[in-house]
Amino acid sequence: MIPRYQRILFWTLVAAILLMIAFLLRGCEQAHKRLGAPSADTPIAAPTAASTEDITLYLANDTDASITPTTESLSLPQEPSIRARALLDHLLATYALPASAHPLQAGPAVADVFIFTDPNPAPGDQPGQLAVINLRGSFVDNHPSGIQVEALTVNSIIGTLHAALPQITTIRFLVDGQPHDSLAGHADLLHTYPATDTAAKPMPPTEP
Amino acid sequence: MKPPFKLIAALVVTFLTAPAAQAQQPTPRTVIFLDPAHGGPDPGAHLPNNILEKDLTLAFATRLRAQLSTAGFTLLSTRDADPAVPFPTDQRAEIANHAHPAACLILHATSSGSGIHVITSSLPERQPDDPHATIPWNTAQSASIPQSLALANEIGLALQHAKLPVILSRAAIRPLDNIICPAVAIEIAPLTRSDSEPTPVTDTAYQQNIAQAISAALTAWRSRIAAAAAPAGAQR
Q1: If you write DSSP's letter for every residue of B147-182 in order, what string do you get?
Q2: CA-based angle A128:A129:A132, to the nearest 5?
Q3: Which of A148, A153, A158, A182 to mutate to test the interface with B (most CBs of B within 10 A)?
Q4: For the segment A20-62, what is each residue's pLDDT rounded down to a tens digit?
């Protein structure tokens, strides 16, 4: 017959062991989460000695469907195509940060940006420049699906590009070098978009 | 009775009975076009609990159709089941354009954002100079933008009165850009409130509230159209 005090001691030790296991697992989980999550302080561009300039990012917000111009200091190349690509990569990388109001998955998004004279300018308009943005298939595959969320991404790209390169008048999209129906099932990527200021804050409905 | 008297009598009878016959004719029912988006091999968005957008839009369209039928509308829907073959947006727009409905509603659902998104085409408004001019397919909606914006506002107001958060916005999407009638896309997103747990798009009570609000909006829209058409008819 095992004495009562030994049984109590045994079960107390078992409870302590279980408690320690739970504590350890919780600690591991939290550490894993902390190390795995991208931080807002994570550098998304290599440090450079080149001079920075103020650029305007048109940042989308899913909650109120707004697009707000925000100024940032960034070092960008001068050649327009490379400049546009670097700018859009920076913009879309911003959306992968944990505090993003328009969360998108991290990863390369823009393969190329081609800029050339618009072959079909609007009647009566001076021929401007057409930018063709070649998005990566992986970006499109991982983009959240929905009319509003996709339209916000498209408008954010258009507004940011228009602010940095005002000579661009129209914008078209490709995915992996091919025309693609939509971004993630909704926003039309076969449409030719006018390059305009896309800053917006939807107004509530009004009484007629 | 001599033949001239017969003719006069027949004419008198015709004039007397014509207004009565007109009064007995039922008033024409307003046709509403519903398009539950996606379907077949196109599942749309993957919503929580393994629900596909194509199934949710179909379920919501069924709910909305019941509400609108009760309110006296005639419904035309692009699909009542999940099609086995692809159902392209151009084909959906063709169905809408042939029917000449009073309003076209494209139904979507998403897990991004909050509340109900009422979307109008982002095409610029175009005033047709020549009523017989060819309408480009890709910008067919541009002539109906003012009516579509008014319809979106009407639906937005009804949703607001039902205490549902609503966002009115504009986007380039198909088949919205290819439809010639007043058209809006209605996208249902989860209902997030600061004081309670988020309501998923699959919640039937949430869907029912939205369907009731849309029905009320279309009833008001129909009255407004009738009121606008009445003075024009009286002038003639």
Answers
A1: HHHHHHHHHHHHHHHTT--EEEEEE-BTTGGG--SS
A2: 145
A3: A148
A4: 999 999 999 998 887 766 665 565 566 666 678 899 999 999 9
Q: How far is B90 from chain A (nearest CA, A)?
A: 12
State whether residue B71 sits within 8 Å of chain A by CB: no
Say whether residue B153 is in contact with chain A using an 8 A CB cutoff. Answer: yes
Residues 6 or more apart whose Cβ sits within 8 Å of residue A38? A96, A97, A98, A106
Compute the distance between CA of residue B37 and CA of residue B53 in angstroms, rounded to an integer: 8
The chain-wide mean pLDDT, for chain B, equals 85
Q: What are the backbone angles phi and psi of residue A132, rounded to the nearest 5°?
A: -110, 115
Q: What is the pLDDT of residues B180-211, one digit of tens each?
A: 999 999 999 999 877 778 899 999 999 999 99
Instruction: Give helix then strand counts, H and E, for chain B.
Output: 5, 8
pTM of the predicted model, to two decimals?
A: 0.81
**What residues of B are in contact with residue A203 (Cβ under 8 Å)?**
168
Distance from CA of A147 to the nearest CA of B (A): 7
Per the DSSP assignment, residues forming a β-bridge with B108 are B187
Contacts of B173 in chain A (CB under 8 A): 147, 151, 182, 186-188
Residue B17: predicted pLDDT:
43
Give residue-wise pLDDT tens across range A158-188. 999 999 999 999 999 999 999 999 999 999 9
